[in-house]
Amino acid sequence: MFNFEFHNPTKIVFGTDTIAKLDQLVPANARVLILLGGESARKNGTLAEVRVALGAREVQEFNGIEPNPSYETLMQAVELIRREKLDYLLAVGGGSVIDGTKFVAAAVPFVGEPWDILTTHGQVVTAALPFGSVLTLPATGSEMNNGSVITRKASHSKLAFMSTHVFPQFSILDPTKTLTLPTRQIANGVVDAYVHIVEQYLTYPANGMVQDRFAEGLLLSLIELGPKVLATPNDYDLRANLMWIATQALNGLIGAGVPQDWSTHMIGHELTALYDIDHARTLAIVLPANLHVRRTSKHAKLLQYAERVWGIRDGSDEQRIDAAIAKTAEFFEAMGIKTKLADYELDQSAVDAVVAQLEKHGMTAIGEHGDLTPEVARQILTAAR
Ligand code: NZQ
Ligand code: ZN
């Protein structure tokens, strides 16, 4: 196992009727900005509950953070906060709203051009406004991590930053607030969480016994509950489990002390930036092809994955690996998510375009060994056609 430091300061408040606890979680004298996506939190009553819980505090709203939040939109929130001297942020929504809030929190005190936060992947961040979140979509893990992914529309750039300054102080996870999610977003959440686990697990053996078993437990839970949550969309316990699994999938615990890949995400981000495909759907396209192309360097872990997650014990090594990759793609398809570029009406020109974008963004040596070059990315995307 590698040396590591693990510190996660985010307080989780989990369960039904927990939004009322905002009154204890947000400082009484805070000047609050609630950050929101489109209409969902207003329509399903979540926003009204939040406003009641915040009581007499001074509260303003910033609406319209879009899926794959944009720098262009978020800079308007930065201006509003500076102008109105607001000092506490509350994200109410999915990963996009929380990611956007992280960027805003870091951008407000930042001296200089805030886009540098993204181009340096967070290295220039030295302070951020405090914030909390009310999560309405289980998927990204943003509610309990210090990562954020922001898109600059003008240049089709979708870049990530991380900083210890942008952990949420708290996140409220009320599974009943996810009951209004459309099927498409539930499926996206299951697949995004699944791929987060795979990025931290399916690399090469590092003797992280508990990390492996924990990751396998989370994967098995998603395989078990994914189809059920689609079939019985009003089941509280399924929603509660999905919510807690998605948080655990990317709160740093399973990735501590073990190698991490993240190449499926880096390639997927380019597909979203160029073609506006939902984040999870880009992962479903890239992951099976990525595992196929990099099967030699992932050999040992692919066999472990085949046996422990899919129960595949028969056949040669290569047959078991093929079967595990096929099962992975079948699971995504069973969640209603297509796994080939052609399913999204993309052809060879998309392969060329994504490879060019990876080069432009300096993503030329990615993956757990830093050996995923643009040429390997081309092989992966070609295999994903
Ligand atoms: O905008 P509204 O009207 O709120 O609707 C949203 C949006 O259209 C809707 N929604 C959210 N909660 C709802 C709801 N609809 C009905 N009922 C509810 N309770 O769902 C749609 C999608 O929301 P979004 O926040 O975009 O989805 P998600 O949570 O999947 O976030 C995706 C973003 O997170 C980034 C992705 O790249 C993408 O930009 N990621 C962030 C990560 C992180 N911070 O660690 C890691 C991930 O790998 C990922 O890259
Ligand atoms: Zn993701």
From TrEMBL:
Keywords: Oxidoreductase. Residues 9-175 form the Alcohol dehydrogenase iron-type/glycerol dehydrogenase GldA domain. GO terms for molecular function: alcohol dehydrogenase (NADP+) activity; butanol dehydrogenase (NAD+) activity; metal ion binding; methylglyoxal reductase (NADPH) (acetol producing) activity. The keyword Ribonucleoprotein does not apply. Its cofactor is Fe cation. One of its GO terms (cellular component) is cytosol. It holds the Pfam family Fe-ADH. Residues 187-356 form the Fe-containing alcohol dehydrogenase-like C-terminal domain. The keyword DNA repair does not apply. Belongs to the iron-containing alcohol dehydrogenase family. PANTHER family: ALCOHOL DEHYDROGENASE YQHD. This is Iron-containing alcohol dehydrogenase. It comes from Chitinibacter fontanus.
